[in-house]
Amino acid sequence: MISIKGLSKVFKTKHQEVKAVDDVSINIDKGEIFGVIGYSGAGKSTFIRLINRLEEPTNGDVTINQTNITSLNIGKLRKERQKIGMIFQHFNLLWSRTVFENIAFPLEIAGVSKSERKEKVSELIELVGLKGRENSYPSQLSGGQKQRVGIARALANDPDVLLCDEATSALDPETTDDILDLLVSINKKLNLTIIMITHEMHVIQKICHRVAVMDQGKVVEQGDVLDVFVKPQSKTAKRFVQQLSPLEHNQEGLHRFVTNDSNSEVVKLHFIGNDAKRALISDVLRKYVVDINILQGSISPTQEGAYGTLYVEISGDQKVITETINYIQSSGVEVEVIQDVD
Ligand SMILES: Nc1ncnc2c1ncn2[C@@H]1O[C@H](COP(=O)(O)OP(=O)(O)OP(=O)(O)O)[C@@H](O)[C@H]1O
């Protein structure tokens, strides 16, 4: 549905050139929530602004529903932009207008009649959970409520795509989760495609189906959220994943828990999707005469299912330990034998 090919943006200043976005290619499916994560300065904001041409690309193409956005003249671009909603970190509301008037604004610009505007705005107010606040001004609203107005306004012209530029970065953790839940429910209800720019791995974990990791203008990794979380390939993705769930990727200090029994192996088990719900340990103990000492573990939910990691020490007869590991592996749970326990 969205095809981004070889997209680049070079900013030329007096003394230097900055490649803010460097040859980025991404395909996004209809109804997908696609996350783009990167540290400050990675080029995320520039990238998202290139999609609706708030920023003009230096090179490359953005095609949405077969329309090449990059080649449109300004008149056609304006029309096409009505199908691309956008929300911002600092909400960008009109402070002299009420909630109702803010949401009605894009409809006024699109030339929608007063009675239709009223109907549509009421529908949107209901959708984002702001009933009763129609006549409030932005200054009278909390951050979460302001972003709900931003979302309603972005949806006014029934867009095909919603661009979210750090939409939860100014909110506290609880309000962030409320807004993320709202975005998921809108995505499901309207089958709306959402592109989410963020520096928070929690946002990706909670709502995205796929993710691209940006570093110095380039996409250094992209894939299903579960895959990137379980097996991050790039240095940047590894850093992000580790921040979110340090336990899973940090085996330092494990030596404090192992028995140092010569007849034991320390292994790391990776559970993905439905495997995370299995009672694997009791299953193994019913089948094999071994002891299992749980060292550390965690489980994290994502939009695409849960993933978890468990470090265990398996003790017993070496032959039986090997059989146990083979059995766990054959049941679909990935096993990594840890040779040197830190
Ligand atoms: N208008 C501009 N003129 C010159 N350089 C710019 C301009 N906008 C962005 N840049 C540079 O492009 C690079 C990418 O910036 P961008 O804001 O896209 O990154 P970001 O990942 O969104 O970071 P942040 O989250 O801090 O905004 C940075 O080096 C920035 O200084």
TrEMBL record:
The organism's place on the tree of life at top rank: Bacteria
The ABC transporter domain, residue ranges: 2-241
Keyword hit for Ribonucleoprotein: no
GO molecular function, one term: ATP binding
PROSITE patterns with a match to the protein in the record: ABC_TRANSPORTER_1, ABC_TRANSPORTER_2
Amino-acid biosynthesis in keyword set: no
This protein's name: Methionine ABC transporter ATP-binding protein
